[in-house]
Amino acid sequence: MFGKHHYSYCKGNGLNPDIEIIVDDRERSEAIRQALDTIKCITVKIQRLAVGDFQVGGRFLFERKTLSDFAVSVIDGRLFKQMTQLAMSPLNGVLVLEGSSRDLKPSRVRREALQGALITTSLILGIPVLRAFNPDETARLMVYTARQVRFAATGGLPRSGYRPKGKRKQQLHILQSLPGVGPARAARLLARFGSVQNVLNASFENLISVEGIGSETARNIDWAVREPEAAYDSKTVKMFDL
Questions:
Q1: Are 181 and 225 in contact (CB under 8 A)?
Q2: CATH code of 42's domain
Q3: Same-domain check for residues 146 and 171
Q4: Is the pTM of this model over 0.85?
Q5: Which of 111, 114, 151, 172 has the most crowded Cβ, counting Cβ within 10 A?
Q6: For residues 102 and 220, is the Cβ–Cβ distance under 8 A?
Q7: Closest Cα partner for 129 from 57, 120, 172, 137?
Q8: What letter does residue 13 receive in the DSSP assignment?
Q9: What are the tens digits of pLDDT across the range 141-165?
Q10: What DSSP character marks residue 134?
């Protein structure tokens, strides 16, 4: 189990105050705990997070996945639900993929399926994807991210692109990232399905039932968010070599 750690050295010597990391109480990685224990100037707290595995510096929500879990979450559809929740959070979502390419071999997931998941996560939902070799590097990535932003930004986190405020505006903004979907179509999709997640899960037949969504647009949406049938591809592992 994680404990609560506080390093007073930073505050007592005129340095930057501690970076607070909130760990979801369901995160059971002993390796992450040990890695965080080696980093000075952080405070670790344990509590239930509604979204993500780690809240860092009050600005970021990190979702950590080993490459094997990433592959499984693509197959069972869990990834897109989690990434949509990250995208809807007022904090800045980050996906960390941890491990080496060897971890993907048992999953037998096609290269195109993994690429499609990365495209949806990074380009459609706007969530940065970082790579880490092991839990120690994941811990250091989280802390380094918070420290770099603290150093570079004053008064707010600089982000490229437009990030609307309000849940409905964020939902419409995400939907307009889908191919062939503008403001009017985004509004109709949201009205028809009620949430971004439901739109991503909608079948081709349900998509074309929406006014203004023709077969070509429905195919493009389906291509962007649907994963091909999982099958092993010997080229898959090369994509994730560090």
A1: no
A2: 3.40.50.10130
A3: no
A4: no
A5: 114
A6: no
A7: 120
A8: T
A9: 999 888 877 766 544 444 454 566 6
A10: S
